[in-house]
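[09:14] KT: can someone run the structure on this one? pasting the chain below
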Amino acid sequence: MAKERGDGMRRRKKLIRTHEWVFMSIVCILIIGLLGYSEITKAIDNEEYIVTFTPEKEMCCQLKKEQPLRLTEPTVTVSPPENVVYLTFDDGPSESTEAILSLLKRYQARATFFMLSPAMEKYPEGMKRMVEEGHSFGLHGVSHNAKSFYESTSSILGELTEGNRVLERITGKQTMLIRTPYGSVPYMTKTYRQVVKEEGYLLWDWNIDSRDWEYKDVRYVQDTIYQLEQVVREGKVPVILLHDKKSTLDHLERLLVYLQNNGYVMEALNEHLSPIQFKS
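[09:31] RB: done, structure tokens below
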């Protein structure tokens, strides 16, 4: 009898130890799970993501709050290549566009043309060459009249929409690059900027004004080179404002020769670059 009582006591102690081990294991698993969960719950772009596990142990992320996906906004921002300079031509196309394109081709240069829709309708052939030769498009509106363009958010979006409609009809392409008439300051208010951004447009200004609208001769080239050297010394990427017109064409080759001889790569703007904008 004493032996049977001893055996029974040992079995009960063993059972208790087994239950304790199981309980402690469950507690440990819960602690590890909680710690792991706290480690893999992260904030990404200021939005909290919750990580969950499927039975196959795959991890998936889900936004706490659903956010609309804006397909028109660039998904990647890239750094410009070394020694790059961006030539931009406003107010075209014009009777000088094709000659400008021929010069650019001779010097292996690509540029961006911020165009007005009435001019696009008048000179469509130049636009087709732009596509073939690797240049990029930007919208510059319809009226090029500050009072009309900046009258309201509706007037701004209306002119940009019309520009894209004409561009697509001629080239089969649209663009989200824009340059508003006379630059963004002082006309583009905070509200206007927000509206065009929400529509997916990328607003570009410039950091070098060639002043070809003032100088009708070689002085615009000299002034551009002077500004370019300053901008480069400051470690900035040069974006040069030019105009699609004959007086600019007449002296453009001097600028292209300087840029080529000094090792600059002349590229077109694209929708993956971070725009240069004036500070309001």
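[09:33] KT: thanks! The longest strand covers residues 84-92.
[09:34] RB: yep, looked fine to me
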